[in-house]
Amino acid sequence: MSQPGLEKPEVEFPGGDAPEDLQITDLVVGDGPEAAAGATVLVHYVGVEFDTGEEFDASWNRGEAIEFPLRGLIKGWQEGIPGMRVGGRRQLVCPPHLAYGPSGGGHRLSGKTLVFVIDLLAVR
């Protein structure tokens, strides 16, 4: 496996029934500083829909990582990134209540279970 941050990951299509709870899988364990709850993180990520495997967003496609405070993100990221170390790659499977809420919530991804592969590049 190549080092995270060097190339866009392929998201493995999970299949089966969507989980009811957040699923966290470390694909690569980093050895840098640890992300704490409420930290500001610099990440590269890919997001796909659980049901279809269709990619809906990827920082890789824009050619630059994105920095933001965890508190401003969906709950699945707020719960799933703390404890991760810089240099790591983690997959999060976020059910609707930890993503964009139930169907009809006004967001195009409302009601969907989402899969993210996140590379943690820096913690501030």
TrEMBL record:
The keyword Isomerase is annotated on this UniProt entry: yes
UniProt key word Lyase: no
InterPro entries: PPIase_dom_sf, PPIase_FKBP_dom
Gene Ontology MF annotations: peptidyl-prolyl cis-trans isomerase activity
Residue ranges of every copy of the PPIase FKBP-type domain listed in the record: 38-124
Record keywords: Isomerase, Rotamase
Family: Belongs to the FKBP-type PPIase family.
Alphabetical list of PANTHER family matching this protein: 39 KDA FK506-BINDING NUCLEAR PROTEIN (PTHR43811:SF19), FKBP-TYPE PEPTIDYL-PROLYL CIS-TRANS ISOMERASE FKPA (PTHR43811)
Protein name in the entry: Peptidyl-prolyl cis-trans isomerase
Organism annotation: Vallicoccus soli
